Amino acid sequence: MVCFPTRCLYGLGADAFDPAALERVFAIKQRPADLPLLVLISRPDQLAELAAEVPAAGRLLMERLWPGRLTLVLEARAGVPPRLTAGTGKIGVRLAAHPVARALVEAFGRPITGTSANLSGAGGCRRIAELEPGIARQVQLILDAGDLKGGVGSTVVDVTGADPVMIREGEVSRFEILAVLKSG
Predict the structure, then answer these.
(1) How many CA atoms lie within 13 A of 37 on its CB side?
(2) Domain 2-183 class, CATH top level
(3) Distance between CA atoms of 55 and 161, rounded to whole angstroms?
(4) Backbone region of residue 14 per phi and psi (left: phi > 0; alpha: psi in -120 to 50; beta: other values)
(5) How far apart are CA 85 and CA 170, in angstroms?
(6) Terminus of the chain with fewer CB atoms < 10 Å: N or C?
(7) Distance (Å, rounded) from C-alpha 161 to C-alpha 12?
(8) What is the pLDDT of residues 46-69, one digit of tens each?
(9) What one-character-per-residue DSSP string does 4-49 give?
């Protein structure tokens, strides 16, 4: 388990396909079992490991709004650990924007978790000094990239249905999402 910088906040990274590592993420964060974990990729071609398909709306949003800022919810591919999806059959994926996060995923060679490095329900940390001591003691490595910008997280859009659904408005506004979708 590693604590690493994402675009705005520090995150917890673990092998997205290792059930024991996923259990550790849930335990460290004290995260409810019904909340899925998002996954970071370093290249769009890594989606093939995670998603059954990428609908046209998802491809358009990826092309215009990745890396960072946007998490897409897609139908999970068979073999994706159910713990990642919280039993929903859907997987949240984001192309890593921070160079350290992207290099970490690339070096690991497969997707990693990208959940914030905080206790479930608590605010995220934008500097390592803000990291919950209990979390710091349970990770094997902390990659300190200094102060991050903080702020709101990524926008989360579910593209599994006929019409995309915004689950959480974050860095990308509802207006921007609609503009991209209408332009396609």
Answers:
(1) 37
(2) alpha beta
(3) 9
(4) beta
(5) 21
(6) C
(7) 29
(8) 999 999 999 999 999 999 999 989
(9) EE-SSSEEEE-BTT-HHHHHHHHHHHT--TTS---EEESSGGGGGG
pTM: 0.94
Integer Cα distance of 43 and 90 in angstroms: 19
CB 2 within 8 A of CB 115: no
What pLDDT, on a 0 to 100 scale, did the predictor assign at position 75? 98
pLDDT tens per residue across span 120-148: 989 899 999 999 999 999 999 999 999 99
| SS3 label, residue 140 | coil
**HSE-CB of 142 using CA atoms within 13 angstroms:** 17
The type of residue at 44 is P
Tokens of 180: 């991209």
Amino acid, res. 113: T
How far, in Å, CA of 79 to CA of 36, rounded? 16
